[in-house]
Amino acid sequence: MEQAECSDGLCCVKCQLQPRGFMCRPALGECDLPEYCDGSSGECPQDSYKQDGTLCERIYYCAGGRCKNPDNQCMDIFGFSARSAPENCYISRNSKGDRFGNCGITNSPKLTYLKCADDDVFCGKLICTNVRQLPPIKPSHTLMQIPHKNDFCWSMDAYNITDIPDDGDVHTGTLCAPHKVCMNHLCTDNSVLMYNCEPMELCNGKGVCNNLRHCHCEAGYAPPNCRDPGNGGSVDSGPPTALIEIQSGDVSDSPMHRSVDFGKISKIIFILPAFLLLFLLIAIFCISIRTGLESVQTPGRTSEDSSEETSSEVFIMEFLPVGIQEDVPEEGSEAAPPPEEAPPPEVAPQPEEAPPPEAPPPEAPQPEAAPPEAPPPEAPPPEAPPPEAPPPEAPPPEAPPPEAPPPEAPPPEPPGETAP
After folding, report:
1. Is there a smaller number of Cβ atoms within 10 Å at the N or the C end of the chain?
2. How far apart are CA 101 and CA 369, in angstroms?
3. β-strands 16-17, 12-13: how paired?
C-alpha cells in the first residue's frame, strides 16, 4: 500500500501511525496502568502495572496487575452477585483434604490432598456463596455445593488423570489475614511481595511505582520523578499527550491549560448561584416585612370603621318607634356609654312595675284583691290608645321639658282604690 506507515500493532490503524499520546492500552482495574503510543512505532509499549504489594480497595494488595480481592475472584467465576463465603465454609471445606477442599497436593508416594491448617484455610480452595447463576462449566472442571444456613457454599476443581491447576484455587497475593497474603497455599507476611517503593520520596507524592519500580506520574507532572510540570505517565508507558506543543510554548490546548480554565469556570459556576440565592433571600425578607406592616395598619382602620358603624346604629336605634323600644333597652345596655338611653327604660317600665309591689301591702289583708288581677286580660282595650300615640309624636321636642310628669305617676293610684 502506498504511503503506508506501519503494518500492524496497537498503534497502527489502517497502516497509519497513531499520534503521539494516543492511549493504545487502557488500564484494566485499579492495579493496572495505561500505555500510550509514541508516534513513531506501531507497537504499543509493554504492559505495565502497579508494583506488587501496592494497596488497593483500601485493605487488599496488588499482584500481577490485579487487585487480589477474593470477592472479585468469585465474581469472575460465578457472576456479579457471587461473593467469598464466610469463614465457616472455608473451615468446613478446606479442612477435608479432598478435591474440593485442600491446601495443595503431594505426589509422593501417591497423589494426596493436603488438609489446610487453621491459619491457612483462606489459602486453599476458593469457596463462594450467593451464586445466582451457574457459569458454563469448562472441560474437566467440576462444581460442588454444600448447604450453609439459607444458602450454599460452592467450590470448583479441575481433574484430568491428575489434578491440574485451575481458577478454583485462591490466587497468590490474596489477603488472608491483616498484613498477610497467600503464597503457595500458606498465609504468610506481605513482605513476600517485595514491595520496595516509597511514592512520597521516589515520586514526590504525585505518582505510584510501576512493576519496573519507575514512577508513573499523575496528570500535571512529568516523569521520571514527578517534580516538573507535565502530562503524567512514565518513561515506560509513553507520554499521555504530545509534549512538543508544551515545549514550543503553545499551551492553549494542553490538558493543564484546559484544567486551569475549567477550574476558573467551575468557581464562577459555584459562586454566581450563591450570590443569586443571597439576593433572592434578601428580596423575600424585605417583601415579608412590608407585607407585615400593611397587615398591621389595615386592621386598625377596620376597627375605626366598625366603631363608626356601631355608633351610627346606636344613634338610629334612639329614634325607633315606641312599639320597638322593648328591644332597645337590651341593645342600650350593651352600649351603656350613651347617657340618653338610660332615661327611657326607667320612665316606661318602672312606673308600671313600681305600683304593684307598693299596692300588695294594703291589699294583703283582703284576699279579694286577686279578682282585680283578672282585669289584665282587659288590657287590650288600653291598647287602643296606641293609635293616639301619633299625636304625642308631634311633641317629641317637648319631651325633655315634661320630665316633671314622672311625679304624676301617683295619680294612677286612684284607679287602684276604685278597683276594690
Report:
1. N
2. 128
3. antiparallel
Instruction: Write out the three cell numbers for 237.
Output: 508507558
Dig out the grid coordinates for 229 from the structure: 510540570
Reduced to 3 states, what is the DSSP secondary structure of residue 392?
helix
Paired with 157 in beta bridges are 142
Distance between CA atoms of residues 18 and 215, nearest Å: 25
* Contacting residues for 46 by C-beta, under 8 A, at least 6 apart: 35, 236
Q: Which three cell numbers, joined as nine digits, stand for 224?
A: 521520571
Q: Tens digits of per-residue pLDDT, 325-335?
A: 444 444 444 44
Q: What is the DSSP letter of 173?
A: T
Whether the pTM exceeds 0.90: the reply is: no
What 3-state class would DSSP assign to 266?
helix
Identify which has the larger pLDDT, 339 or 193: 193
- Check residue 368 and give its pLDDT: 44
User: What is the bridge-based pairing of β-strands 66-67 and 35-36?
Assistant: unpaired
Q: For CA atoms 352, 353, 355, 360, give the dihedral sign.
A: positive
- Average of per-residue pLDDT across 243-254: 42
Residue from 33, 41, 35 nearest 11 by CA? 41
Measured distance CA(400)–CA(394) in Å, rounded: 13
Q: Enumerate the domain spans of the chain.
A: 55-193, 257-295
> What's the CA gap between 76 and 269, in Å, rounded?
43
C-alpha cell read off for 399: 319631651
Mean pLDDT, rounded, for 230-249: 71
d(CA 43, CA 37): 8
